[in-house]
Amino acid sequence: MRILVVEDEAALSRQLASALADAGYAVDCATDGERADELVEIEQYDAIILDLGLPKIDGLTLLRRWREAGMSSPVLILTARASWHEKVQGIDVGADDYVAKPFRMEEVLARLRALIRRASGQLNPELRCGPLVLDARLSKVTVDGNSVRLTSHEFRVLSYLMHHRGRVVSQAELTEHIYAQDFNRDSNTVEVFIARLRRKVGAGIIETVRGLGYRIAS
Ligand code: CA
Asked: Which tens digits make up the pLDDT trace of 185-203?
């Protein structure tokens, strides 16, 4: 799962990026509206955290523009605490949820998980496939109740496939959703992650659909 953080306060942006990385997400950061707009144009995000007060292009303008262009990723806006009209305007132009500043990081993470879950049509925070359970709240994976240690990239691959259970996901799509922008991508490594995941969670969980990609049964 890959997240874009659009926030111009450097300290806050760093805090968000590090909390999200710790929770297992690939994270890109934009510190002004123009950069955010460029990134949304070329990259695929599973969710976007958007501050409204931004240099160059403000958050409301960006969000309106993205929604008009058909961008469907869930967007969590960061609003000023006392500003009820920011929340209303934000939701009216296409935000899915908001968090008022100052906030607890736990709240941002919880709202984000819920948005990602809903966007992929999952209702339960525990994603299951046979003996395999992925708990996005704890970034934890178990098989038959025994916890499995995964690297951050393995976790992202598994999490993306679990959130899109029943659908074939191509290698290119997986690559888009597991690496941050500054990361040197190599789609061959997806095969390596899949092979390691099969060793760790059981060979039968991730199916290869020849020529198309991978699928976890729903
Ligand atoms: Ca700001």
From this structure: 776 789 999 999 999 999 8
Q: Per-residue pLDDT tens for 17-32?
A: 999 999 999 999 999 9
Q: Return the domain boundaries, the chain.
A: 2-119, 126-216
Distance 36 CA to ligand 1 centre (A): 13
Q: CATH says 126-216 is which class?
A: mainly alpha
Architecture of domain 2-119: 3-Layer(aba) Sandwich (3.40)
How far, in Å, from the CA of 215 to the mean position of ligand 1? 40
Which ranges of the chain would DSSP assign to H, the alpha helix?
10-22, 33-42, 59-68, 84-92, 105-119, 152-163, 171-178, 188-201
Distance between Cα 86 and ligand 1 center (Å) = 13
Provide the whole-model pTM. 0.93
What is the predicted pLDDT for the residue at 80? Answer: 83
Distance 52 CA to ligand 1 centre (A): 6
